């Protein structure tokens, strides 16, 4: 009945499928993994490594971009396709006998919207192929675990869908304050040990986790020809990196917000995350302030930090009822399971603009901003 009511009240919002991240083209084994993951939230999967077979690799090869940039070794999609079955047989044999080795990742610099450049890591084609297979297996599991308001690098979870979700909640929910934040250099600061520990919550397969470690530790061939051996991070451009990033933030941020922050708020609270950008909405200022103060220490636990702001960051305003303070004393930062962090105090002045249907302008853009509190006001 609940879903029927949702469809009637908000027909523009699409309901998510029962098994997320899969379509009719996926293999029976992937569907079985997804079904098991959804049915048993604490099940740890074994033998994932053995699922990377010729059939799955063949399917993954068809899904690669034939025009993608070449990695180390200069093997193109067309080169690999020429003797595909022979190459797949050899690759499967090397995987089976633990002779597969990750190659260097070629680093290139691409322009950003602000005139600067950012590094992009391009794996060798064969590494892309195996990474794609591993990403499919992880996706089948974790698409059943990720929270509904997590977007980015996920099937049917576009930036447009994130904006629609955030807009709907701000317009029709009882939220008075927003905390907007962006994580600084997120892909460069993923802690490898933390990530493996997170994966172990759902994966009980040493060989499969060993594959992940190979890719995380793979040397980077820099633009000047030097080889860098990373101690942290996961290259942007690697096919496995997006799902690993979502898993990392699922445990570091999303679950903490859902299971700790929400329960200790006096009013309603909501998070909407797109990749490493996120907006949190609160009914009361005290809850927003407490969250704002403890957020840096929570992220620091996982080797992450809030990005520094550009001056003149703006916010759009939404109409919302019930923005008054709750009865009793205000919440403290310790309520959210962390100590206060000192640093700059949250902005107290309200950002007042006309009512519209857009989220804060930098929430899903390319610019980075320090965490900041906005007042949700009516026109």
From TrEMBL:
GO MF annotation terms: RNA-directed DNA polymerase activity
The keyword Chaperone belongs to this UniProt entry's keyword annotation: no
Pfam family, one: RVT_1
Domain Reverse transcriptase intervals: 91-341
Parts of the chain that traverse the membrane: none
InterPro entries per UniProt: DNA/RNA_pol_sf, GrpII_Intron_Splice-Mob/Def, RT_dom
CDD domains from the UniProt entry: RT_G2_intron
Region (Disordered): 316-369
Key words, A-Z: Nucleotidyltransferase, RNA-directed DNA polymerase, Transferase
Keyword Plastid among UniProt keywords: no
Stated family: Belongs to the bacterial reverse transcriptase family.
Full protein name: Reverse transcriptase domain-containing protein
